[in-house]
Write a structure and sequence with these properties.
Elements (H helix, E strand, L loop, with lengths): L8 H8 L8 H8 L17 E2 L13 H8 L5 E2 L10 H10 L4 E2 L5 E2 L18 H10 L7 E13 L5 E13 L18 E11 L7 E7 L7 E6 L4 E4 L29 E13 L1 E2 L23 E2 L5 E2 L4 E12 L6 E9 L7 E6 L4 E11 L13 E10 L4 E11 L11 H8 L1
Parallel strand pairs: 12-18
Antiparallel strand pairs: 1-2, 3-4, 5-6, 5-20, 6-7, 7-8, 8-9, 9-10, 11-15, 13-14, 15-16, 16-17, 17-18, 18-19, 19-20
């Protein structure tokens, strides 16, 4: 049962003496209910159609250039489904209604006067030079992991994209915790928090043997101008070492991903220049897990009978999920660091949930490099514990390096719950204790 009461109408009236919404209802409707007046349509596209090389040209306008190219080359094909709403948790929407008109940006692009909810629910203004930055703040302060998320089992599989041969598999246990601005689980802010941590990520490698007990801990701070802190425990060295700032753009444990790539973008907003590049209806991998036609046979013996999303296509690299036509904001991010390996991060942000289901990367020369779709499932069609959580739940992901013809596929079981993510597990001391 959800016990969060901070943003109920009664609490708000008690705190502010009024129930008058600060953000107009038409703004709330446009931001959180974009399909209330009907699903998007496009000439040549019919929900339920199977997209392949034979018909992809007729819907080229509603595909990102990477997906279009892969389908056209015969590497990938997929089914589509009707556009369905993924309405977020009512507490998060209510927090936006009450506080969404108070938020501002500093002259350095740092969020100010923020309490909870979506910081900038208004439609992006093409004439606003900060529009892209505001959209990225909407992502960072979204409920992408529902305040508190556990992912286990979590399998990362390395594959040769030419042959489909599996080269290696790393099995993880991951934890995510928001310390501040929480709307699903009590309390709104976890105390004590003297370092003013906004969010923590902690992971442990379970297999293979040579990497077992490798641990990663990341702190992101409330002040976006403060650099993240990260620590890595290497089991074979039996010691914790601090991550250098440049390591977030190195290949993570030999995968096709950087730490900065986690969840679509796992860096500070201030590390990039962000440009709003328009709004588009585009096909994105949104699905209902329990209704997918094809699921993997793994993980064997799962206590909930859960099955991973399957992968297929070229090299068995591509997620076998339904895609749907959804409203997206296009954001172009260019790193401020001249030594960064990217020239551009092109993001298709889902307008309804502010999450990042589709990200493509360009190398230093500006050539296409990596493709990162993140499958999103409706939380009501997944594990029973996730029902009613109002989260666009991560369900699978792909890191595809088209220059190296190599991919890392991510299969996992996500649980939105507070019990598994107590603050004491997100500490360097816990890393050392676990490593002994």
């Amino acid at each position: 049962m959800n016990r969060m009461t901070a943003f109920t109408a009664a609490a708000l009236i008690a705190a502010h003496g009024t129930a008058t919404a600060a953000v107009p209802e038409d703004v709330i409707k446009a931001s959180f209910y974009p399909y209330a007046d009907g699903a998007p349509q496009h000439e040549g596209y019919t929900p339920g159609m199977h997209v392949s090389a034979d018909n992809v040209d007729q819907i080229k306008d509603i595909l990102d250039p990477f997906t279009y190219r892969y389908v056209k080359q015969g590497w990938y094909e997929f089914d589509t489904t009707e556009t369905f709403p993924m309405t977020l948790h009512p507490n998060y929407i209510e927090a936006t209604r009450q506080y969404g008109d108070q938020v501002t940006l500093s002259d350095q692009g740092v969020i100010e006067n923020f309490r909870a909810g979506r910081p900038f629910p208004q439609e992006p203004d093409p004439d606003d030079p900060w529009a892209g930055t505001k959209l990225m703040w909407n992502f960072q302060r979204s409920i992408n992991a529902g305040d508190s998320e556990t992912i286990y089992p979590f399998w990362w599989t390395f594959r040769n994209a030419n042959t489909g041969k599996t080269e290696r598999q790393i099995r993880f246990h991951w934890h995510f915790l928001n310390w501040k601005h929480r709307t699903i689980f009590e309390p709104e802010n976890i105390e004590p928090n003297p370092g003013e941590i906004f969010r923590s990520i902690y992971s442990t490698v379970l297999e293979p043997f040579d990497l077992a007990n490798t641990q990663l801990l990341i702190y992101r701070y409330e002040n976006d101008l403060q650099r993240d802190d990260g620590w890595l425990y290497l089991g074979f060295q039996r010691r914790v070492r601090r991550l250098a700032s440049g390591q977030i753009t190195d290949a993570f444990l030999g995968t096709d991903a950087m730490i900065e790539d986690f969840e679509g973008y796992n860096g500070r907003i201030s590390d990039y220049n962000w440009k709003y590049a328009g709004t588009q209806y585009i096909l994105m991998p949104y699905e209902k897990h329990n209704e997918q036609k094809v699921l993997d046979s793994e993980p064997a013996g799962d206590r909930d009978g859960f099955r991973f999303i399957a992968f297929g296509g070229k090299g068995n690299c591509f997620p076998q999920v339904t895609w749907q036509l959804r409203k997206a904001y296009i954001i172009e991010g260019s790193p401020k660091d001249p030594n960064h390996p990217l020239s551009k991060r092109l993001i298709y942000q889902d307008a309804e949930t502010a999450t990042l289901p589709l990200v493509v990367l360009y190398d230093k020369k500006g050539d296409p490099w990596k493709y990162f779709p993140i499958c999103k499932t409706h939380s009501d069609y997944h594990l029973p514990v996730n029902k009613g959580k109002g989260v666009a739940l991560d369900d699978c992901a792909l890191f595809f390096d088209e220059q190296a013809m190599h991919c890392t596929t991510l299969q996992f079981k996500s649980s939105i719950n507070a019990e598994d993510n107590r603050p004491n597990i997100f500490t360097v001391q816990q890393m050392r204790k676990k490593g002994r």
